[in-house]
Design brief:
By secondary structure, the chain is α+β, with helices and mostly antiparallel strands. The protein contains 5 helices and 8 strands; from the N terminus they run βββββαβββαααα. It is extended.
């Protein structure tokens, strides 16, 4: 699942809303040079362009399909001068589910990471019940298998499509308080483990 944001005039978009009031717009994709062209499925109206040449390569050279939706819960008005009418805009989050065959997953993962694109976890609805979920960018311990989507702690569906910046500030403040409490005198007093007698070199303090 790749995530980006795009700003679209609301008159171009025919959307539906879920129980949380989030607008969901299914879109079709077409290759337009090195760009991905987005078209609203219901109205066939132009919805925007994404400058991701690597996605064009995947669609042309690999057995890959993309399922794209626009989601938004944040509407606003563009700032205009007093003698101009405000133009209604809505900021949409572009969510791209990448489908393919498992034997190509490592090559696809390398291409995406080389382009600084990294797969996130989708929601259950975006993945589909009958599809096996595999994320080659998800770090697994040797000998372990990919966990089920509902078992993953960082599911995209567990967060709002647009989060307030204050949540990050609160988390940073909490971490800062933890580090402030770790005074040198206290931390040194807690270290009671002696080095193993099998060590042949002197350890740093």
């Amino acid at each position: 699942m790749l995530v980006d944001t795009i700003e679209i005039t609301t008159t171009l978009v025919s959307s539906i809303s879920n129980a949380q009031g989030v607008s969901i717009v299914p879109v079709d994709v077409d290759i337009f040079g090195n760009f991905i062209k987005l078209t609203v499925q219901n109205t066939k109206k132009y919805a925007g362009m994404l400058n991701y040449p690597v996605l064009c390569v995947l669609l042309k050279e690999f057995n890959v399909g993309l399922s794209v939706t626009l989601t938004s819960s944040d509407s606003r008005m563009d700032e205009k001068s007093d003698n101009q009418k405000a133009k209604p805009d809505k900021k949409f989050e572009v969510r791209i589910a990448v489908y393919g065959i498992e034997k190509e997953k490592l090559v696809i993962a390398n291409l995406l990471s080389d382009a600084e694109l990294f797969l996130q976890h989708p929601t259950n609805a975006e993945c589909g019940r009958h599809r096996k979920y595999v994320n080659p960018h998800y770090l697994l311990r040797p000998g372990t298998n990919m966990p089920r989507l509902e078992q993953l702690p960082l599911m995209a569906g567990a967060r709002s499509s647009i989060q307030p910046e204050k949540s990050d500030e609160v988390e940073l403040a909490r971490l800062s308080r933890i580090f402030d409490c770790a005074e040198p005198e206290v931390s040194e007093a807690l270290v009671t483990t002696e080095p193993s007698p099998r060590l042949r070199s002197t350890l740093m303090r």
